[in-house]
Amino acid sequence: MFSVLRRRSVKEEYMDDFTSGGEELTEALRHLRRLNRIFGASGPLLRGMNDLWVQSGKPKQLHVMDIGAGSGEINRYLLRWADRRGIQIRITLVDMTEEACREARRIFKDEPRVTAMRQNVFHIEKETADMLICSQFLHHFTDEELPDVTCHMLRSSRSGIVISDIHRHWISWSAVWLTAHLISSNRYIRHDGPLSVAKGFKSADWKRLRQALSHRGSYALKYSWKPLFRYSVVISKNEISPIQ
Description:
The chain has 244 residues and is α/β, with parallel strands linked by helices.
């Protein structure tokens, strides 16, 4: 049964179909926030964020773009991280769907440091933000697409990018399948939750991406496994200058 997890699945998630959406997608975004809390999605991203911040000279002002942000709730934790370090942070949430942007604006309506915009990652201009982050976004792309989208995010940043994504493993697949069916009857959650694990990564996948990036620029990719079945990945631009 779990032999399908040996390689990354190429099936499309329902959320990748931008012709559908509406209230069902809005509900899915709300249920997804519960899943992310249960599985501690913020931890690996914050660890990677802290590592890249240190590499960048611990700047006291920071503009971060969250790509494929969904409703962006994970950035509540990023705001707290910045507050503890005395960082003046500005966060731009980027997503392809209006439903996600609308949810994000609702969640952060009283937070002036956070804005949301609907945009394709490939339309973001060069060095738009100090750092780009993405959580459970990269697995939506095939192995062939990964170098292109990663390089574009790197070009859109001044110092580098931080990635958090899922470890493809039978334990994580089983846990997500069970939890998704316990907490939601939404078809997006029940279909996309387990599939996102099947589209996730193993160590060899990050090594292949590192090799592909070595032919495209001067980048340093470091990854580490984090609970619960997540990877924290930091890709920095070599010889990065401290952020002013």
